[in-house]
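May I ask you to review the protein record following this short note?
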Amino acid sequence: MTDFDAKTERLQFQTEAKQILEMMIYSVYSHREIFLRELISNASDALDKLRLEAIRNPDFAAGHEPKIRIDRDEKDRILSISDNGIGMTREEIVEFLGTIARSGTREFLERVKEQPEQNMAEMLIGRFGVGFYSSFMVADRVVLVTRRAGTSDVWRFESTGDGTYTIERADAPGAFGALPGGFGTTVELHLKPENEETGMEDYVSEWTIREIVRKYSDFVSCPIEMSVTSEKDGKTVAEDVVLNSMKAIWTRPESEVSDEEYSEFYRHLSHDTNPPLRRILFSAEGATEFRGLVFIPSKAPGDLFFRERESGISLYIKRIFIMSGCTDIVPGFLRFLHGVIDSEDLPLNISREILQNDPKLRIMRRSLVRRVFASLKKLRDENRDTFGAFWKEFGAVLKEGIVQEPDVREQILDLCLWRSTKDDGLTTLDEYISRMPEGQEGIYYLTGRDCDALRSSPHLEAFLAGGKEVLLLCDPVDDLVMPMTFEYKEKKLLSVSREGVTPSGSEKKEDEASRSEREATLRPLIDAAKTVLSKVVRDVRVSDRLTSSPSCLVSDPNALSPQMERMFREMGQAVPPTKRILELNAAHPLVTKLNERLDGMEASEKDSLLGLLYDQALLAEGVVPERLQDLASGVAKLMQGYLERPGTGVTEANER
């Protein structure tokens, strides 16, 4: 090490470092408290470096007990953070604190100039080695005293953030608080006045410090000590307390952690009084190194479908808390999960914008999704009842991923459970396929809001008569999901309420002669219905799907379903009504008699009856007609006409 004779040197910060200091001092911050997280993280890194040095040289730090210490001077508002880690030489102070040697700093600062409306200063925290500079968010003077392990020189750094700093030799005694070793680093912050308007909290308050350490640094692997005072036997007594739990249970072998410890940790994360349904513990090494502990809840929270709800996954870097609700790692359709992801090599940063651009996050995201899918599939195969309970709580959310994440669409479809016309239970798509009769071209389904109502839908009649199974999809999300899902394992997904989908196959056509004959017979009714109902139907035709109902409405293959139209309207969006196809059952007595008597009807009576026929088709699929008054009036007239027929007793009574 070079010997310096001068007592005190005054040096200039590197240009980029000076710019960053100005941003730290003059910008408005929403996360001032992270300065303590950064300084504790730096102290933890220094202890890790000492441990690595000791591996190469066992005598280097013999008997060393790693510690981080926080000292408070409430009267003079001085906060000190000390560690007995590796420490720094004079050259390292200049390199690490006086300059920012990482590449890309200048380019990043140019982005700040181009986007001044963003709080870009916060994005710098933890990037390019500038975590130390966060001290100037809360302090108007920073003093650092350090001694490199294995050396005898002690150095003192001081700056007020004015663009310069001083370095001088210092005396070793008392430089590192009460920490053993005689080497390490102490950062002494002369804090700015407390100010509620600017968000400057009382950072020498015992409880403020306790809360910050618990929030960000609870799982740091070495003890973080602080001296506190209490009254005992009428005397004020000072004692050291450890602020962090150091219980990062995701770093311990699963065999060494009890079920109760995992359950307690889950309650700590989720505030859920119910036990978790399943836990997933995993780790990865290679291009990026991380660990994860994820819990699948047993019950859905009340806010599961709120847009503002965040994921319950917290991101840690080297056991330092970074953020909760990390959407860059957890896709929206898994927002019900709780747990932690702890990375060893992500850059320590609080900015979501920078994090989402890191390719390591994409690796972590894929790994998490893969592990969750594998765990759920195993649960489904081993305990169908328990998986069914999970599906009841979270199935609708999981199905959102079919639209959100096309890459995992088939994996989600593989997990899905559906109601079916086969029985009252739930079935998978693979189970449905195994029961398909030879020649069936696809997987039939029908969407709606009420599964009981779907079971009596006119759309099912010919399919059930032909022994075809139809899936009944009753979650509101199904109407959004299914139009985006064209096939599963090379089997088409076919809605029985869509034009062209019949029990004989979506492409096959019945005998043209038979169809032409039936259409010719019903021509008067078809033509009249096209005219009277022209504002609400696109076409009127003979049906191939009806066996017992008089009519039904069929949608165009690319049109919105009635349920989707209603959903958009409930959300306040203006959606033009979709004209559908009215299909008539040529064998139904109501249809044949109406066809026979049209010629003798007055126009108003014809309009009323055809309107009722259309409304009846809406009601059959669970849709309330918009013209409720007309419907009520038409039904009343029909009832009156029936009661006034000869033989009912009403006409005879009137005559008398």
Observations:
- DSSP finds 23 helices and 23 strands in the chain.
- The radius of gyration is 36 Å.
- The chain has a mean pLDDT of 81.
